[in-house]
From TrEMBL:
Domain named DUF6310: residues: 180-303
Composition bias type Basic and acidic residues, residue spans: 149-163
Assigned keywords, A-Z: Signal
Highest taxon of the lineage: Bacteria
Keyword Signal: yes
Region (Disordered): 139-175
Entry protein name: DUF6310 domain-containing protein
Signal peptide boundaries: 1-20
Organism: Corallococcus exercitus
Keyword Cell membrane: no
Length: 305
């Protein structure tokens, strides 16, 4: 009897030791998450898009970049600690509100919000995307019981005999996606990790539209898109080629390949009720695509490689 009791106690202690970290613990380990949660209690005139774009920076830098997008009519700032009074020169330069808000820990009563705060749509979607990734660390997302492959599996790619001019457009095999009752690929968007490790391309896809799921591509209708734009039903394909530096032969080859890809992506997006936009880095790339298909919606992002 005593042996059974000891075994039960050991099992209980083991379960306690392996419990998932609390939201507060996860935030302390993830500065981006902590910034999003901190910003969620403040009113933003842009729905929090600036916050989502700058959330990876330290909080004072985020405040500096996004301070103008706060709804100042609904905020009152009080220097309860005297810190901003002491640093009067700096406070005068940037304003009392900025000085109070950028503090590592905002004192109680230092910032008063008038009225009820509704979390900005961009911040809410970024927090939801983080929770999705945390809930399914090996699968990045599920929908209707269908698993999506892990980042490691997606990042695998076969060796090539010769390099291609733009590696960011290689895409691994599309993982299984939800299907509707007819057996066809579902139009429900499913976030999955960005394909590959092309950081400049991924940063452009996250920040320019901006992406509803930062750090993620999205599967719609069985096709992988670089971004689903915040707040609207618009799917994006991002190109960050150094197109202007290619030879004429390579440019023609790339355009032929891209046209096939973009037409298929636009067909799927429109069939699922989404608009489709292509983001390119240069005017030359846009002109080359539109000479072939004038109806493509193409935007110059200016993103660098």
């Amino acid at each position: 009897m005593r042996l059974r009791a000891c075994a039960a106690l050991l099992l209980f202690l083991s379960a306690c030791a392996t419990q998932a970290p609390s939201p507060a613990e996860r935030a302390s380990r993830n500065p981006r998450l902590a910034n999003l949660q901190r910003a969620a209690v403040l009113p933003w005139t842009d729905g929090g898009r600036c916050v989502v774009r700058e959330a990876s920076h330290p909080w004072p830098l985020l405040v500096e970049k996004c301070y103008r997008t706060l709804d100042h009519d609904r905020l009152e700032f009080h220097d309860t600690t005297g810190r901003c009074t002491v640093a009067s020169a700096d406070a005068a330069a940037v304003g009392l509100g900025f000085c109070v808000l950028e503090a590592p820990e905002i004192a109680v009563g230092a910032v008063i919000v008038l009225g009820m705060v509704v979390v900005g749509v961009a911040i809410k979607e970024a927090l939801d995307a983080y929770e999705l990734r945390h809930s399914y660390p090996e699968e990045a997302g599920t929908s209707r019981g269908t698993k999506v492959t892990s980042r490691e599996a997606e990042a695998q790619r076969k060796p090539k005999l010769k390099p291609e001019p733009a590696g960011q457009d290689w895409q691994p095999p599309v993982p299984p996606v939800p299907v509707d009752r007819t057996g066809r690929a579902s139009c429900e968007p499913v976030p999955v990790p960005h394909a590959g490790e092309d950081d400049p391309h991924n940063e452009c896809a996250d920040e320019f539209p901006p992406n509803r799921y930062p750090g993620m591509d999205v599967l719609v209708g069985g096709v992988r898109f670089d971004a689903l734009q915040v707040g609207v039903r618009v799917l994006w394909e991002i190109k960050t080629h150094r197109f202007d530096t290619y030879s004429s032969f390579i440019q023609r080859t790339e355009i032929e390949k891209e046209i096939k890809q973009l037409l298929e992506e636009r067909r799927v997006a429109q069939a699922c009720g989404y608009d489709f936009v292509v983001g390119v880095s240069t005017q030359a790339h846009k002109d080359a695509l539109q000479r072939r298909i004038r109806t493509l919606n193409i935007v110059i992002t200016g993103c660098k490689r």
